């Protein structure tokens, strides 16, 4: 059966990406097939453009999460502020999420895991409305956004999905802090090691 037609869950781990992951992020973006790359960037982007984007992705405002399969980065989710961030640790009331999963491991649960992790991260950074934009022909992203309860609205050739997030609790904030500390330790100590997600 072709990889794109599978729907069984593939073992993977999600963790936050840090500057130590810069090379893995670059390799990941360069491996994307043309269609996936165009869907991620909402249009065609040159190899030089992809390299430039990947080089600054881990240090740009916001946070990145990666999905690792057998130690290799195979999916990436980004959470970026919409407008100026009120602080280093908060994104403000509105933020935007972007996702891409390599074709060979798509429809195996990775996109859903990335979406859930991004939504959790956004909730704990002061985001009330999380937006996901994609081209109207991006069926996988539309299904993922709808599955998580996003309200979809057509804007020209694009779709904007808006997800209203619940406010965090003291326990969920504590848990998020522990998870981020764990992610950082893994990134700097075992960047390619398969670690069970917390």
Structural commentary:
It contains 6 helices and 7 strands. It is globular, with a radius of gyration of 16 Å. The chain has one domain: Aminopeptidase, CATH 3.40.630.30. The two termini are 32 Å apart. Helix content is 36%, strand content 25%. It has 198 residues and is an alpha+beta fold. A hairpin with a 2-residue loop joins strand 6 and strand 7. Helix 1 packs antiparallel against helix 3. The protein has a 7-stranded mixed β-sheet, with helices on both faces.
What is the secondary structure topology, with strand pairs?
Blueprint: E1 13-17, H1 22-31, H2 34-41, H3 47-57, E2 63-69, E3 72-81, E4 94-101, H4 110-123, E5 129-135, H5 139-147, E6 151-155, E7 158-164, H6 170-189
Parallel strand pairs: 4-5
Antiparallel strand pairs: 1-2, 2-3, 3-4, 5-7, 6-7
């Amino acid at each position: 059966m072709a990889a794109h037609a599978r729907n069984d869950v593939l073992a993977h781990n999600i963790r936050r990406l840090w500057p130590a992951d810069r090379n893995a992020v670059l390799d990941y973006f360069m491996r994307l097939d043309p269609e996936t790359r165009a869907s991620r960037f909402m249009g065609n982007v040159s190899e030089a453009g992809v390299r430039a984007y990947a080089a600054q992705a881990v240090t740009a405002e916001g946070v990145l999460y990666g999905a690792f399969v057998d130690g290799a980065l195979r999916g990436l989710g980004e959470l970026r502020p919409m407008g100026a961030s009120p602080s280093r640790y908060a994104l403000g009331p509105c933020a935007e999420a972007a996702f891409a999963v390599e074709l060979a491991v798509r429809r195996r649960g990775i996109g859903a895991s990335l979406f859930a992790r991004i939504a959790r991260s956004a909730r704990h950074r002061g985001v009330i409305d999380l937006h996901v934009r994609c081209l109207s022909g991006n069926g996988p992203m539309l299904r993922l956004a709808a599955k998580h309860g996003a309200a979809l609205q057509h804007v020209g050739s694009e779709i904007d999905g808006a997800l209203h997030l619940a406010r965090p609790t003291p326990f969920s904030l504590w848990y998020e802090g522990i998870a981020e500390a764990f992610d950082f330790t893994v990134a700097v100590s075992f960047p390619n090691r398969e670690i069970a997600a917390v």
